[in-house]
């Protein structure tokens, strides 16, 4: 029988997080390998994928090594309500954006995702949705001049 303080290697949180980050970093390095880096004054399309890949792989390696001396274990239960509501809010955003525009899509998406946590109330969704819709409109429509539908067609 194992000691209560000793966590089995397969249940160490840092080990799995490190493997995930290292894998994503390696994937990013592989995906951006054919892009040119450019020069310091004018970076190319491969600069950011390579930089993020190196940082993520380094973080993953650090977490894998750190998992040897940490004792934090993984809680194996999955909270299905937040998963379903957040994924549902992404699907709702896509459907409502196509039919109604940016602001209604953000309001509906925030309204659905707000209830992923039981302690959130409707006033939180209203305030957060209004702020997010305003800043998204200001950034994408006004500042960047993207031709996005804002309200109902």
Shape: flat
The SSE order reads HEEHHHH
| Residue-averaged pLDDT | 84
Q: Say how many strands there are.
A: 2
Question: Measured on Cα atoms, how large is the radius of gyration?
Answer: 21 Å
What structural class should be given to the helix and strand makeup? mainly alpha
Count of folded domains: 2
- Biggest sheet overview: 2 strands, antiparallel
**Order of strands across the widest beta sheet?**
1-2
- Which percent bin holds the helix content? 55-70%
How much strand? under 5%
Can you describe what's shown?
This protein is 61% helix and 3% strand. With 153 residues, the chain is mostly helical. The chain has 2 domains: 58 residues; 64 residues, no CATH class. A two-stranded antiparallel ribbon has the order 1-2. A hairpin with a 2-residue loop joins strand 1 and strand 2. Helix 1 packs antiparallel against helix 2 and helix 4 runs antiparallel to helix 5. It is flat and about 55 Å long. It starts with 12 loop residues before the first helix and ends in a 10-residue tail after the last helix. The model has no long low-confidence stretch (mean pLDDT 84).
